[in-house]
Write a structure and sequence with these properties.
The complex is a heterodimer of chains A (62) and B (158). Chain A is mostly helical and 62 residues long. Chain A has three helices and no strands. The two termini of chain A are 24 Å apart. By secondary structure, chain B is mainly alpha-helical. In chain B, strands 1-2 form a two-stranded antiparallel ribbon.
C-alpha cells in the first residue's frame, strides 16, 4: 500500500509538472526546455552524468 | 578550375582528411568512440548486449560494479570526444517558472533521503526498494539495464 502511494505521488508530481509546462500560457517551462538548459552548461552535463552514474550504482549494485 | 588545388573534406573543426581518403591524422580514441556511438546501429547493439549480459548479474556482488564501471568510463570518454560538435548553448529562458522544477527535484531528493534515513523498508520505501520487484527478475533487470545504458548513450549524443 505504501509502495503504491509513493509511486502514485511521484508519478502525479512529475506528470502534473510536465502537463502544466506544456500549457501555452503557463509560466512553468516545459521539461524539454529545462533539459536543454541543463545540458547547455558544462556543470549541468557533469551533474547529469553524475546522477546517471548514481542511479546505476543505486539500483543495480548496492 | 580545381585541378591544381587539393580538395579536402573537413570533419569537425580540427581533423582534415585528403580527398583520396588517406587520413593523415588518426582521430583520438574518444572521437572514434563518439563516432561509433553516434550510429544508431552501434547504440542499439551496445544497449541490447549490455542489458542481456547485465541481466545475469546480482546486486551486492562485484560483477555489476565492473559492468557499470566500464559503461561509465566509456560514456565519459565518448562525451569528451563529442564535445566539439555539441550544439551551442540555448538562449536564456524567457519564463521564470524554473523554480517549480527546482521544487520538484527538492521534493524527490528529500523524500529519497528521508526514506533512506528512516530505514528504507516497507513503511518508508526508497526508489531502489520500489524497483526491487522489477529488478530482481532477469527480464526486468535486463530491461532496466538497457534503459539505463541507453540513457547514458543519449547523454553522450547531445
Amino acid at each position: 500500500m505504501t509502495r503504491g502511494i509513493t509511486i502514485a505521488v511521484f508519478a502525479a508530481t512529475l506528470l502534473g509538472a510536465t502537463f502544466v509546462g506544456r500549457t501555452r500560457r503557463s509560466r512553468v517551462p516545459a521539461a524539454e526546455e529545462v533539459w536543454s538548459l541543463l545540458m547547455g552548461t558544462r556543470t549541468g552535463r557533469v551533474l547529469t552524468v553524475g546522477f546517471w552514474a548514481w542511479t546505476g550504482w543505486h539500483f543495480f549494485c548496492r | 578550375m580545381t585541378d591544381d588545388v587539393d580538395i579536402i573534406e573537413t570533419i569537425g573543426p580540427t581533423l582534415t582528411v585528403p580527398a583520396d581518403g588517406r587520413s593523415e591524422l588518426s582521430p583520438p580514441a574518444s572521437r572514434r568512440a563518439a563516432d561509433w556511438l553516434n550510429r544508431r546501429g552501434g547504440v542499439l547493439t551496445v544497449a541490447i548486449g549490455f542489458g542481456l549480459i547485465g541481466g545475469f548479474t546480482r546486486s551486492f556482488t562485484s560483477a555489476p560494479y565492473m559492468l557499470l564501471g566500464g559503461a561509465l568510463v566509456a560514456v565519459v570518454i565518448a562525451m569528451v570526444g563529442n564535445r566539439e560538435r555539441r550544439l551551442p548553448r540555448p538562449p536564456a529562458p524567457a519564463r521564470r517558472g524554473y523554480v517549480v522544477w527546482g521544487l520538484i527535484v527538492a521534493f524527490f531528493s528529500s523524500a529519497e533521503i528521508g526514506n533512506v534515513v528512516l530505514g528504507s523498508g516497507r513503511d518508508h520505501p526508497s526508489l531502489s526498494v520500489l524497483m526491487d520487484p522489477v529488478i530482481n527478475s532477469y527480464p526486468g533487470r535486463a530491461t532496466a539495464l538497457f534503459v539505463w545504458v541507453w540513457a547514458g548513450i543519449e547523454l553522450v549524443r547531445r
